Amino acid sequence: MTTVRQRRVGKGTEGAEDQPSEETNVKPDGNIPSGGKLWNILSITVGGIIAISLGLLTSVYVATLHENDLWFSNIKEVEREISFRTECGLYYSYYKQMIQAASIQQGLHGLVYDNKTESVRTINILERMNVYQEVFLSILYRILPIQQYLEPVYFYIYTLFGLQAVYVIALYVTSWLLSGTWLSGLLAACWYITNRVDTTRVEFTIPLRENWALPFFAVQIAAITYLLRTHLQPVQERLTLVVVFIATFLFSLTWQFNQFMMLIQALALFILDCLDMLPTAKVTWLYIIQISGLLLVCVLQFFNSMILGSLLISFNASVLIARTIQKNLKKGGLLNRLGKLILHVLLVLCLTLLINKCIKKILNLESDEHIFKFLKAKFGFGATRDFDANLYLCEEAFGLLPLNTFSRLSHTLLFYIYVFVLFLMAVAAGIVAFRNLRNLTLFISLISGSNQVQLMEKMEECTITLKPDAAYSLVHTVLFGCLALSTMRMKYLWTSHMCVFASFGLCSTEVWKLILKCVHLYTSQRAQVIKYSVPIITLAYISYKFWPGIMEELSELREFYDPDTVELMNWIKSNTPNTAVFAGSMQLLAGVKLCTGRTLTNHPHYEDKNLRERTKQIYQIYAKRSPEDVYGILRSFGTDYVILEDSICYERRHSRGCRLRDLLDVANGHIMDGVGENEPDLKPSLYPRFCEEIKRNLPSYTMHFTRVFQNKTFHVYKLAKHK
Fold first, then answer.
1. How far is CA 556 from CA 73, 169, 201, 328, in A?
2. Pair 187, 535: CB distance under 8 Å
3. Which residues contact 111 (CB under 8 A, 6 or more apart)?
4. Which UniProt keywords are given for this protein, alphabetically ordered (predicted)?
5. Where exactly does CATH 3.40.50 map onto the chain?
6. What angle separates helix 369-378 from helix 609-618, to the nearest 10 degrees?
7. b/e string for 280-309 if b means 16 or more Cβ within 10 A?
8. Residue 14: what pLDDT?
9. Can you name the CATH fold of 563-719?
10. Element at 207 (helix H, strand E)
């Protein structure tokens, strides 16, 4: 098991907006005085320098944490590779494969016609997995004159840490655009850093797909925020759409779950468009960009059927079709519009399901069925014995967001301020949505004069408070918040935007104006003072409370320590042929491929039905099956060696019912081990557990399996080759 141990000794200012606020000194002819222009230029320059500086500091910070945690510069190459855990090691192995290939052409050929990732099968890695980033980096490393100065592994990890700079800058810019002051961006970046445990995990899961994708997603959100501003020039709008497209394309190219994240984004756009809170033309462009970006990725991934069958493409196409069918959707009174809206939603939903079902039927697509089985079981739509669904359900990362997350976020004041801003914005959004849905002309005419004026003033305040970019940010954070609450692994999509949203609310003139008017204390000067003083006080508090902790964290020195896995990998490289085929757990086999280059029977990239069925069969080594059955299964996949792990065979990490052996027992219709209830139709197995019984060296086992290696963690058996 991989562990980390203590290291042994001896080894501000505002940016210009599209429309000047009421406090801006503007001449009657509409021109800003030269002094104001100089101030804006200086403000943007200072804000930009701070953004770049914070981004670079974040990159250095996470890189230092990674080095201090593993002593990465001092450990052996095999230890560095083992530190890329589970699927991270699988992705990095393709970068290593491209680097070690005789030429770029041979490297690409090896990926397109790969027969080492899945035994007795030839698969196209570029079609099955999102590894174009590894391909690009490997080519870049080969053509740049840096081989003598920088090892391939450092070029790789420094690129990922560099993307963290892009991520932080994008969050900074988004908050700046929303609030109009770079002080908001500074606060968002500081919150991102001080809440690092809940905003990123890049320092210990470097090659994970989300660490490549989320920086581009943040850039896309920043560009959408700018696009939704009013009174953009046509050139500005076109350039922004280009940025949105490029960011969307790169996000889609680097993460297999892109379609689900963009579906949530499309839902946010759909909700706001239905409530008339966003310009329809811009929303249409965003729908088209999502579809075109995903289709371009589909082409690059050799027409990956999972992309073509995605709900995102079906949903966006349905929205565009429904909008064509239903004319005058945004006209009429309240009841009329509500009726049209309900019909529109039902039409879009039915069209989405119909189009998606047709596409999957035509393509015979089943690659993503495990996701829907997991969702069905997770939200209580019937219990399931499906092995794949239960495998996800029992993993902590796919469970509900732990309550201690909110406790950690509250220590930096982030969660408290976020909830406060969210409440205000939600109330404002409700009022604006009601106003947009209802034709208030008749309603207002029935009200007496003074009340009529007060109502109009309230409506005007809400309009000012909730601009299109702020409305999008609100719905975005709510939907991704729901996703994070239901699935812990997805919290990083929410917590980073939480930093942006909370800092925007704290630095927004409109928010403070609304609050002060509600308590009858509003003046322009008072709003401006609060707008700057509250964020500065918050920044001072964060610096005072967390700076010492960050310095202490940077001073802690540990080192990588996993002697059992290192011993296993060295033994495999020294004692098995290069063509040997290994079976075992998905997580371990990813490391076997990276460290030794041997052929695998299965691996952690689970988005393929045949692989899922194959993995379930391979995992019978931990079930109650006869040695003849297990031997037959393993040999059907060309297995030469099987690796058994005590940490799985005698697992204690999960409770009864969620241990891997329990999932296999239930899927096989067998009673689970240990004290506890079993479903009434489960029966005792006729055979003992294979991973336990094989260690007794009984004749029925030794005739098929010969132990060739063992240590405290692993047992390797060679399979006999019977005629």
1. 16, 27, 18, 64
2. yes
3. 94, 97, 98, 124, 125, 126, 131, 135
4. Glycosyltransferase, Membrane, Transferase, Transmembrane, Transmembrane helix
5. 563-719
6. 70
7. eebbbbbbebbbebbbebbebbeebbbbbb
8. 37
9. Rossmann fold (3.40.50)
10. none
